[in-house]
Structures are given as C-alpha cells and as structure tokens.
Amino acid sequence: MEAIGISAAILSTASWAFATVLFDRLGKVIPYAGITFLKGTFSIVIMTLLIIPMGGLTALTLKAATILVISGIIGIGIGDSLFFHSLQDLGAKTQVLYFMLGQVVTMFLSFILLGDILSIRQYAGAVILLSGILIVIIGKQEDHPNKKRGIILGLLSILCYSFSSIMVKITIGDVQVLTATYYRMVAGTLSVLFIGVTTHNITPWIKPLSNCSILLQFIINVIVVTLGGFLLSMLAIKYTSVSITSILSAMEPVFVLLFAFIINHERATQREIIGSAIAILGLLIIITH
After folding, report:
1. Distance of CA 125 to the CA centre of its chain
2. What is the rounded CA–CA span in Å between residue 252 and residue 134?
3. How far is CA 83 from its chain centroid?
4. What is the DSSP letter of 131?
C-alpha cells in the first residue's frame, strides 16, 4: 500500500506544479480570492459527477466531518487564498522557494503530533532531495513588486497547509478519499464564498471567465488540480506517512521548471538541471528503501 501512497504523492506534486505555472498566468487577470472560489466551485462540480455514479458520499462520524470541515477552511479557504496572493506577488519560480519551508514544518508537526519517524535511509534521501531543490531555487530570482508581502503570505499559507495535512491524517484512515476531499472542498469554497458575498466581490471574480480562452485554461487547470492534486494528495496521506508525502511534495520546483519550459518556453539553467538531477537521486533513495 505504501507504493500506492508514494506514487500518488509524486503524481499529485506534478499536478500541483502544472497548476502553479498556469495559475501564475491566470492570476494576472483573476483576483487571488477569485481563483480560490472558482477553483473550488468547478472542483465541486467535477467531484459531484464522480460521486453520483458511485452511489453518493459515505457516512462520516460527527468528529470526522468536523475535522475535515475545519481542515478545508484552513487549508483551502485560507491557505489557497494566501498561496494565490503570494503567487501573484512572487511568481511561480520564486514562490516555490517558500513552499520548501512547508515540507520542514509538516515533517516537524507530524513528528510532534503523530509520532511519524522515518528510517535513516529515508532521512538521508530527504536531505539529498532537499539539497537538490535548494540548488534549483537558490540563485538569481526575478524581482517582483510587493515581494515582502508575498513572502509573508507564502509563509502563512505554508502554516495553513501543514496544519490542514495533519488534521486530514488524523481522520483519513477510515474515510473514503473522495468523500474526505469533497467535505474539505465544500467547506473551503463556502468560506471564500461568504467573504466574497460580504465584500461584494463575486462579480469581479467571475467576470474574467467571460473570455473563452481564460475559461478553457481555468477548466483544464481545475480538472488537473481536482483529480491530480487534491484526490491524489488525499490518497497519498491515506497510504503513507505525512512526512513521506511532505518530502515528495518538495519535488514541485523540479516539475515547475519542466512545465515552465513546456508551457511558457522558459529554459532551465545549468544550476537548475544539476539541482534537479540531485533531487531525483534523493527521491529514488526515499522510494526504494
């Protein structure tokens, strides 16, 4: 089962990297909170279409439902909004630097709260992987306006994601992955909808989608995020430790480089290629223990 969790974590990371590159472009025309709301709305529609033929959601205890709802509000409603705002301030390549800290925070919290302990080989692989990632993302970065604000918001989003992951791990053991994801998505999206209604921002959030090109890009991205990012990340947390899932998520900068080249035609530097190779070596050490 751990192999399933590891595979899901890697594919989920690739999905998030693809989404990061596209959302970086979409963020130039759609407000950050609007991206969170629209992403959540489309994701709920997609998951509903998946759930109906499967006979509906599975029953949850009040405790499990409550934890998942709170996790959704923290991780999706608040965390995603902060992430997309930070992404607009920093850009895709720079923003993932601060995502790295999230892996350390999540590993620390999972050790303290869940007692997750890895093998010496896995810790060694983690050090090699993280070293490779640091080589990729440290160096000359693009200068973005509001960079300080982006750093602060990025760090806050990391804390939200880390606490949310721990909460999911606590309750996901006996819960169907699709059901857990659905509860979190609905809770997070409704929390952003409440903010949008009270601040009268719903129309500005939706208006950019009147452009067919933007709408198509957004739909493709949401499908990738929903099926690849959210569902696979929940599957990863279910079948492997939070620490392993967190470490493998650190591969996102490598995938960002790949998709930035494919989508935006941004060429990788020699430093980025070397760092990516080291990160892949670390990944192989972790998953072949």
Report:
1. 22
2. 12
3. 9
4. H
- Helix, strand, coil shares of the chain, percent, nearest 5, are 85, 0, 15
DSSP 31: -
Query: Helix 32-51 and helix 177-198: axis angle, to 10°?
Result: 140
Provide the 10 A C-beta neighbour count for residue 197. 10
Neighbours of 12 (CB within 10 A): 26
User: Worst-scoring range by mean pLDDT, 8-12, 47-51, 241-245, 259-263?
Assistant: 241-245
Distance CA(183)–CA(206), nearest Å, equals 23
The pair of structure tokens assigned to 96 is: 């993932």
Owner of token pair 């192989």:
284
For 207-253, write each residue's pLDDT tens digit. Answer: 998 999 889 988 888 888 777 777 787 778 778 876 677 667 767 77
Helix (H, G, I), strand (E, B) or coil at 1: coil
- Please count the helices (runs of H) and the strands (runs of E) in the chain: 14, 0
Dihedral of alpha carbons 176, 44, 162, 113, sign: negative
